[in-house]
Amino acid sequence: MNFILNFKFRFCLLFFLFLSFHSIANDDYNKKSNNLITEAQLVEDPTLLLRLFIPALIRNDVEGVGLLLSIYEKQKKQEDDELLIWGNAIIARKNKQLDKSISLYRSLVSRNPKLVFARLQLAIALFENKENEAALEQFDKLKSENLNDNIIDIINKYSELINHQNDWSFNGGIVYLNESNINNSPKLGVNTANWKSTSKPESAEGFSYVGVAEKKLSIYKNYFSLLNFRGKGKYYWDNSKYNEISSRVKVGFGYKDLTNEVLFLPFVEYSWDPNKNQQNSSTFHRYSNAIGTEVEINNWLNKQWKNSLSVELSRQSYHKTKLLDGNVYSVSDTLLYISNSNQYWFSGIDFYHKEAKSKANAFDRFSVRTGWGQEWLQGISTRFQVGYAKRIYQGAIAEENNYWVPDFYKKPQKNDEYSVYITLWNRNFYFYGITPKITWVYQKIDSSNLFYSYDKNNFYLEFSKYF
């Protein structure tokens, strides 16, 4: 019975969306199309052709586009003409060539991010191709635009359909890593109180990876249960002692409507790493495990402002280094402002509290961050973020009466941590739904312990996909 009701509900919504989308009228288009106009007249009068063709594209009038596109093509327009791309995207979608249609829509929106109706058609094509996360991202961007109530209603109905999906969802990514100072070594030769840094920065080349599988199951109206598997790690082929693997399993429940989402997710997590005393060790050993709970609250304050709050409580246990055992508490809040469908700004604050049996390993970390994302013309996209954090340890590394070490070892360590992230990608350049992104990262640590101060910068190449 639930399956039948769910099927009827989805069928009625889709039928409503179909009727609503095709009811967006253009009076000039209707008047012209009701008159008898010959192909010869349209060829002789390009202005009249455009007055009919553009509204047909906006209305997603498949029949009208099919008739007018062939005439428009005969005018020997360039292959990269935006109207040609748009028309061919609509025809490809009509012919169930969704991958081709999505590719054309992406190319079009990349060239001209202000074409909101093309972006809407892209979002619907993504939904039909079961690329729900990508579709929802486009719908969220469209909400920031000044659209009429009919269009907003269409967006909300599609978003509601996505929220009620019970299918498995998967996503994953690979990032190429080329670390210049993976061991966070200070500059060679740093010295104080007859102590001198002798460690050298170690390089490492490899990749990080992440994979997520998630299953939602609707319980009642907007309530659902959630099962989430996440695995991630790093692999360096020339410095394997820094390899790592971790996995987290979350089982919980949540609530989601068009403006609010609440998740309560108990979890268990395990981590493994190789023997760091062996340069080329390939055998992994259990490093730590944790049990805890995540709570996430996401709220659209209006069509442009969104707040995301995340709270995590856990108990960490280490297999060998028992002095690190302790509770961990973290809170993160991010405020997002989407100024329009091709620009957004964000700011956030974070607090991380780590307890440990050894006070020298227990600390509090406060951080702030802000950033800006932009879709430019010709498919260029950028994301910029800067951050600052203050880390304060609860205990000193050495005792007060230890006369063999510098004074800063006898006081709790304090760090000022700075970071800059710049990501660049081209939305026109992708394969199998994957768009490569290149990121430059700069990190600087100013520590009260001179041997923990360092700075480094790295470039990363990222490949990720939702499917």
UniProtKB/TrEMBL annotation:
Start and end residues of each Surface lipoprotein assembly modifier C-terminal domain: 168-467
Gene3D superfamilies in alphabetical order: Tetratricopeptide repeat domain
Subcellular location: Cell outer membrane
Alphabetical list of SUPFAM superfamilies matching this protein: TPR-like
Pfam assignment, any one: SlipAM
Start and end residues of each Surface lipoprotein assembly modifier N-terminal TPR repeats region domain: 37-139
Main location per the UniProt record: membrane
Domain of life according to the entry: Bacteria
A GO cellular component annotation in the UniProt record: cell outer membrane
Alphabetized InterPro entries for the sequence: Slam_C, TPR-like_helical_dom_sf, TPR_Slam
Keywords assigned by UniProt, alphabetized: Cell outer membrane, Membrane, Signal, Transmembrane, Transmembrane beta strand
Signal peptide coordinates: 1-25
Membrane topology (UniProt): Multi-pass membrane protein
Homology family: Belongs to the Slam family.
Protein known as: DUF560 domain-containing protein
Lineage start: Bacteria, Pseudomonadati, Pseudomonadota, Gammaproteobacteria, Enterobacterales
